[in-house]
Specification:
Length: 362
């Protein structure tokens, strides 16, 4: 059984992907070729925003977004400690300080009731994360940001692209939306890639410029930038994957529903989708105090499982200078200690789902 099944997806669209790759090989514009522009237009329309800027990775999109906002030494960016390290890593690389807010018990995303207390005069952005496939409470976060002088909100939607919050698509919910096309994501390329989204013309121009070494025109670099371009081949592949994306989201949601019906172990807490949200189930994560035992049972049934973010960011050695200790973010630590992700992809069969549920003791 595949934890993330890219082979079945590829078989479904292999001929079309081959055609797209062949077209790139024939025109030879491997960097910023026409497929990049075509993809940006399709993704902007999909999300419902004016601008999409393709980028080299979901990590680089966060960096580019903060650079466009002028974030640097002495500034603070509020985020969560339960996420992949890129979120806080990019804040620190700019010389700014990550300020952590604990997650809530329901969605495992930012606890908005704790956000306001974390805001200071040095806060230059708020960066909520859409963990495991659903967005944070972006409505409440935006309202708090507006009350405190219109603090920019960067949605880290590396896992939630395609999800909705009160009917609006993830990445179109705040000042800037950022996503990843890492191969394991619900919309993944065959290598690194990412994209940025905004309705702000000035920010769109700044982010596009930063992603090409700060170049405004040939031989003219008025700002510092990075090599943050999306490869044409990855754009070509994504153009075919976006065509089946909504269908795959529905299939993911069906798998999640079947897990919900089939897992009957009293020690297991199932994931919950917050009111007003839909999830793309980038992962299907359960909580259980019997994590090691259940992971062993799954392995015996040839079912892979993963414990994501088992060491949260506030306890990572690289962030020790922030002075956090165990107990500072209790909900994060609970989810990190109990979380176990099950196989999740659109192509899981009914028999495979039953095997997972059976191995969990249902």
């Amino acid at each position: 059984m595949e934890f993330i099944d890219l082979k079945s997806q590829q078989a479904r669209i292999r001929e079309k992907i081959d055609g797209r790759i062949k077209a790139v090989l024939e025109h030879g514009r491997y960097v910023l070729g026409p497929e990049v522009t075509e993809l940006e237009e399709k993704l902007a329309h999909y999300v419902g925003v004016k601008h999409c800027i393709g980028a080299s990775s979901g990590t680089d999109t966060l960096l580019i977004a903060m650079m466009a906002l002028g974030i640097g030494p002495g500034d603070e960016v509020i985020t969560v400690p339960y996420t992949w390290i890129s979120t806080a890593e990019m804040i620190a690389l700019l010389g700014a300080t990550p300020v952590f807010v604990d997650i809530d018990e329901e969605s495992w995303n930012m606890d908005v009731s704790r956000l306001e207390a974390a805001i200071s005069e040095r806060t230059k952005a708020i960066m909520p994360v859409g963990i495991f496939g659903q967005t944070a409470d972006m409505t409440a976060i935006n309202e708090i940001a507006a009350r405190h002088g219109n603090i920019p909100v960067i949605e880290d939607a590396a896992q939630s692209f395609g999800a909705t919050h009160h009917g609006q698509k993830s990445c179109g919910l705040s000042t800037i939306g950022s996503t990843s096309f890492f191969p394991s994501k619900p919309l993944g390329a065959y290598g690194d890639g990412g994209a940025l989204f905004t309705d702000d013309d000035r920010l769109a121009g700044a982010m596009r410029q930063i992603g090409v070494h700060g170049q405004a025109r040939k031989h003219h670099h008025p700002v510092l930038g990075i090599n943050g371009r999306l490869d044409t081949l990855q754009a070509a592949i994504l153009l075919e994957k976006i065509e089946i994306f909504d269908d795959e989201i529905e299939k993911r949601q069906h798998v999640a529903a079947e897990y919900g019906k089939g897992i009957n172990n009293d020690s297991v807490t199932l994931p919950r989708v917050a009111n007003g949200n839909t999830s793309v189930y980038a992962q299907y994560t359960i909580l259980t105090p019997d994590r090691e035992s259940l992971a062993g049972s799954l392995a015996k049934a040839n079912v892979p499982s993963v414990s994501y973010y088992a060491v949260p960011l506030h306890l990572q050695p690289v962030f020790s200078s922030l002075g956090h200790i165990k107990g500072d973010f209790p909900v994060t630590e609970k989810v990190a200690n109990l979380g176990l992700s099950l196989p999740m992809n659109p192509y899981l069969s009914g028999e495979e789902i039953q095997r997972v549920c059976g191995a969990l003791g249902s």
